[in-house]
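Bug #77: duplicate submission created two jobs. Keeping one. Sequence:
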Amino acid sequence: MAVEFRSPGIGDIYRMIWRQKLTVALPIIAIALSVGFVVRELPNVFESKALLTITPPQISTSVVRSMSDEDISQRLNAITEEVKSRSSLEPIVTKDNLFQVQRQNGAPMESIIETMKKNIKVEVLSTNDEKQATTFNISYRDNSAESARTVVRELSSKYVNAQQQASFDTSESTREFFDKQLADSKAKLDGIDKQRLDYMLSHADNLPTSSAGLIAQLNDLRNQEKTWSSEKELRFAELGRLRDNRNSIEKQKGIAQDYAEKEAEQNQRLLGDPTRTPAYSQLVGKRGELQGQLDNLLKQYRAQHPEVIAKQDQINAVNKEIENLKQDARRSTDEVREYSQGKAALQVKLLDNEAAKIDGEIARQEMLMKNLEDKIAGLQPQSADLQRRIESVPNSEVALDSFNRTYNMEKTTFDELQKKKNDADIAAKSVLENKGESIRIVDTASLSQVPVAPNRPLLIGMGVGVGLLIGLVLAALFEMPRLLTIQTLDDAKHYTNLPVLASIPEMLTPREKFWRRGTNFMKAIAGVVIAAGSIPLLIIALQVTHIFDRFVR
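Kept job's structure:
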C-alpha cells in the first residue's frame, strides 16, 4: 500500500540548513564580496537643483493679460524643448568641458546630448492661486558636483532669457500686426469719407431729410428673410440626410434577408449531410464489423440460429441509429433555418421601427419647411410695400445711408483696433521694463555635498539576498536525496506505520570516522576554493554586463 510522502517540518528544515551551513554561507560571502567590490568602483552621482518661478505681470491684468495655467504649461513646455535642443546644450558641453572622458574616447556628440537630456529634469511644483505664480525645479545629475551646478546655472539663465525673448518677440509681432491693421482700416475710412463727400457735393439739391425708419424696417425684413432662408437650407439638408438614412435602412433590410437565406443554405449544407459527421462514420464502421461477423456465423450456422438472429438484431439496431441520425440532421437543418429566418425577421423589425422614426422625423421636417416657406412668402408683400415707399424718397437718401452704415462699421473696427494697439504698446513697454510675465530665479543652483547615487548599502544588501537565495537553492539540491530515504525516527514511524521500540545509533570504526571527517573537510576546502575562485569571475561578469549602471542615474 502506498504511503503519503512526509513533508519536512520546521525542525527538519533547520537541521537541513545547519548541515548545509557552509553551502549557504559561501554564495553569500562570494556574491557580497563581488558586489561590494563592483559597487565600490561605481562613480558617485551628484545632483544640483535650482528653484524658479513664473511671476505674474506687475501691472493691472486689465491692461496686460495674465497667462492661464494652460498657457503657462504650454509656454514652459516650449521653453523646455528649446533649452534641451542640441543648439542649446552643445555650447554648454564645449564651454564647460563636460563629458571630457567620453569625448576623448570618441563618443559622438548626439549620444552625449541624449545623456544630458536624460539627466535634466524639469518639475512643476505648485501654482499659487492668489498670486498666480508657478514655481518649478530644474535639476541635473552628473559625476561631478561642480559640473552639475554649472549646468543647472546655465539652464536657469537660459530659461530666464528664453522667457524674456519669447515675451519680447510676441509683443513686437503683436504691435506690427495691429499697426498694419490700423493703417488698412484708416485707408478704408478715408476712402469711404471721400466717396460720401463727393456724392453729397454732386447731389446737393436733392439731399434727403429723413428715411431712416423705412430703411431700418426693410433691413429688418431682409434680415428676417435671410435668417429663415438659412434655416430652410438647414432643414433641406436635414431632410436629405434623413432620406439617405431611410434608403440605407431599406438596403440593410435587403442585406439582412439575403444574409439569412445564405446562412440557412450554408447551415443546410453543413448539417443536412450526416455522412460527414464522425458519429455516422463510427456507425457505418460498426455496421461493417457486425456484417462481417454475421457472414462468418452464416458460414457455421443457419439463419434461424440464435447467435445469427442476435447478430442480425444488432445490425438492425445500428441501421436504426443511422436512420435516426439522418432524421436528427433534417430536424437540425429546419431548426437552423427557422432560427436564421427569425433572426432576420427581428433585424427587419428593428429596421422597420427605425424607418418609422425616420419617416416621422421627415414628416416633421417637411412641415417645418412648409411653415418657413409660408413665412418667407408672407414677407414678400411687406418688403415690396416698403421698397415702393423708399423708392418714392430721393435716391440720394439711400446712397447716403449706405455710406453712413459702411463708415460707422469701419469706424467701429478702427476704434477696436486702436484700443488693442494701445494695449499691445503697454504690454511691449512692460516687457522692456521687466514688469510683464517673467521667469525669475528663486534659489540658485545648489552644490551637492553628498552623492544621490548609487545607494551602495542597498546594492550590497541585494547581493547578500541573491547569495542567500542561491545558497538555499544549492542546499535544497544537496538535501533532496535525503528526503527520499528514512533519516529520523519520525520517518520510520510515518512510513512503517509502526511504533519504534528502540533505536540503535550509527556505529563507526575509528577508521571510518577518520575518513568521514577527512571527506567533509575536503568538501569544505573545495567549496571555499570554488567560492574564492568565483569572486573574480563574478566581478568581471558584473563589470562587463554593466548591471549596476542603471543605479547610478
